[in-house]
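sorry for the late reply, my laptop died twice this morning and i had to redo everyting from scratch. anyway the thing you sent over, i finally got around to it. pasting the sequence first so we're on the same page, its 182 residues, then the predicted structure underneath. double check i copied it right bc i was rushing
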Amino acid sequence: MISHPSRHCTVELQALPSRIGQVRRIVSAQLRYWHLDPLIDRAALGVTELLTNVHRHAKPDKTCTVEIELVLDRLKVSVRDHDPRLPVVGSIEDADTLATCGRGLAMVAAVSESWGVRPDGESGKVVWFTLPTTTSTSARANSARPPRRKVVEKPAHRFTEAEQPVDLRRPEHAPARSAVAG
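ok and here's the structure:
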């Protein structure tokens, strides 16, 4: 018996730059709906990298399916495309430090708990990654933030008694002052 039901969301799209931003927003909204806000940044980054790979490398077309699934204490994000070629993962150490591409799967590996790729029949593949949803996730997210400052309660200042009583009905005259220099 499963104590928590699985949750599932699927989006089919053309992996074009304008659609990648839309899918990021869909994934973020779905995770907010599932109350998984601490996972939004890492899931959005991971799905962006996977969709960018489809846009750059998939042949014959850019059609793909993004799937997010929550089962027990794991969020699984996967991208299925119609190109049977499996990605080649380069080493971060071998990459040019000024290169603007070639680090996508390394970034996915860095932000996720696990990731992988599997053939999908003869005409495609699925690239996936998982994120933990347990308290270790919130502890890890909190450890990246600076510690909160402690609020020190100070006693309120009390007004001192006026030496002479003040008549509030009759204002005292004060010299005129201007806020404009000159």
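The CA atoms of residues 21 and 48 lie 8 Å apart.
thats about all i looked at so far, will dig more tmrw
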